[in-house]
C-alpha cells in the first residue's frame, strides 16, 4: 500500500487504484509529494491555531527543516483556536496511521488525555507549550517560569526603587505556559521589589483583545500604570495601541516571543513601541531533527529540550535584527581540534563512576580532546581545576557542580575568556543565567516525586502513620535539594506518611550506613521506610539494617534513586523495594553539545534526560540489559 499526500486531499492506494478517501476539512494540509518518491515516515503536526504569529513561525521553522528530508511527509493541521477541533485533528491524524505526532497546545489539561492515548501507540513530541505529566516522548520549548522571572527582573530594573503599578496581560489562562510565565513574574516581583500588580487581563494571546480590554480598563482608572507586562508581543502591541489611542504618553511595555518580522517583537523594540522582549525559539527545527532520530530509534533521546531565551532591548536589538545575536557561545573554527576540560566532582558513588566512564568513552568515540580532572568532592579544588582550564585556553568547560552556590566568580572568568560552560548532571544558582551555556542532566524534583508516588500508591500499609527516615545527598547540591522537594510535594497530599528525620549521607555508602545506624539506635522498629537520595546510601542503610537485626525490604522498606547495578542486585534479592533511575550516561549528549558549540550553533539551555523507575519485578527483567 502506498501513501501519497497532496495539498488538501489524502489518497491512499489499495492496489485497485486510488480511492479518494475524503477531502480533508480546511484545517488539514498535506505537504507536496513528488511522483514516485519513497516515503519512510509520515509525521502529523497539530497546531492549536495559526492566528498567533509565533504559531505561524513555528510552522515555518518546521517546513524549512522538513524540506531538507525527502523521505518524510508531513500533514499540518490547524484547530483555529478550538480545543475540540484540535482533539479531533489529533484523533484523525492517529487514525491515518502517522508515524509520529508533533503537537503544540493551548489548553493543556483538555489535551493531555488524547496525547497520552496517542503516546501509547506512537512517539509524541510536544512543542513549545507543555502538557501535564510525562506521557510524551520529548518536550521541546522554553522554561516559561524562567521567562516570567526574566520579565520581572527587566520590570524591576526599569521601575527602580519607587513603588510601581503594573498591569499583567496574560495569554490563555488554561495554558501551562501562561500559568508558568505569570507565576515566574509574580513571585519575582513579590520577592525582589515593592511593585504592585494592580490589574490582570486575560487576552488569549490576541492583539485586538488586549487592546480592547486594556483600553476599557484604563478608562476606568484614575491614574495610568507604570508598566505593562504582556505574555507575548502580539498582546504587547495591543497594549501599545490602547495607550497611544488614550494619549497616556510613555508607559513601559514588556513582551515575549521576539519574532523578526513586521509587528514582531524585534521590530516593536526597534520602533520603541515596547521596551523589552524575550526571543522564544519555536523549536520547529529541533522537532524535525529529533523526530527523525526518534523514528530511526537513535539512542539517548532526551525527555526535555529547554531552549534558551534572549533578552532584547534597544541596546542589542540590531544584533538580533541582523541575526548576529549575542549568543554566549564563541564561534569555534571548524578546523580546530576540540578540547573539552571536565572538572568532575568526585568518585562518591556508582553513578559517578558510570558518569565518568560515559564521558571518557564518548570523548574517545567523537575524537574530542578530553582533559578530565577530579576534585574529590572538594568545591575549592573544583574551582581551581576550572581556573586551570581557563588558563590553558580549552575550547569548552564542563563540570558537575558539587553544590549550587559560589560559582559566579570563576564562571565570570570563563565568560571573560570567551569559554562556554556546560553544567553536567547538576545545576547551579547564579544571578546571570548567561554565565553557563547549557545544562545536561535530570529533573531531580520529578525523581523525588516518583519515589514518593510509589510509596503512597504501591506500598500497602494498614498503619495510619508511616514513619520515614530520609538519607539526603550532599548538602546544598541540586540533586539533594530537588529530590527532597519532589518527595515532600507528594507527601504533602498524604499526611499519614511522615519523615521522622532527614540525615545527610553525602551520597556515599559509608556515610549512608553511619547515618542509618544512628537512626536505628534512635528509633529502632518505629522506622517503616528509608528514602535514600542515591543507591550508595541505600546500600549502606541496608547493611546497617541487617547489622541491627532487621530485614531490609521487609521490616523496613528501602527506596533509592540512581538505579545502578548495585540497586538492581538489591532489588533482585528483595532488600531494596524501588529505585528511580537517574541517567549517568551523559557523555554522548555532552560531546554533541560541545561539538555544536564548536560550529557556533546555539545549543539548548537545558537537555533533560529520559528516565524510568524499577520495582523488584521490573528489575529482574531489565537487569540483563543494564550496562552500569
Ligand atoms: O544521584 C549521586 C551522585 O549528581 C545526579 O550525584 C548526581 C548525583 C547522583 O553522587 O549518586
Automatic annotation (TrEMBL):
It comes from the Bacteria. The keyword Transmembrane helix applies. The chain crosses the membrane at residues 7-24. Pfam families: Peripla_BP_4. It is found in: Cell envelope. Its main location: other. Signal peptide: none annotated. Keywords: Membrane, Signal, Transmembrane, Transmembrane helix. InterPro entries: Peripla_BP_I, SBP_2_dom. Residues 43-298, 346-601 form the Periplasmic binding protein domain. Belongs to the bacterial solute-binding protein 2 family. This is Substrate-binding domain-containing protein. It comes from Bacillus salipaludis.
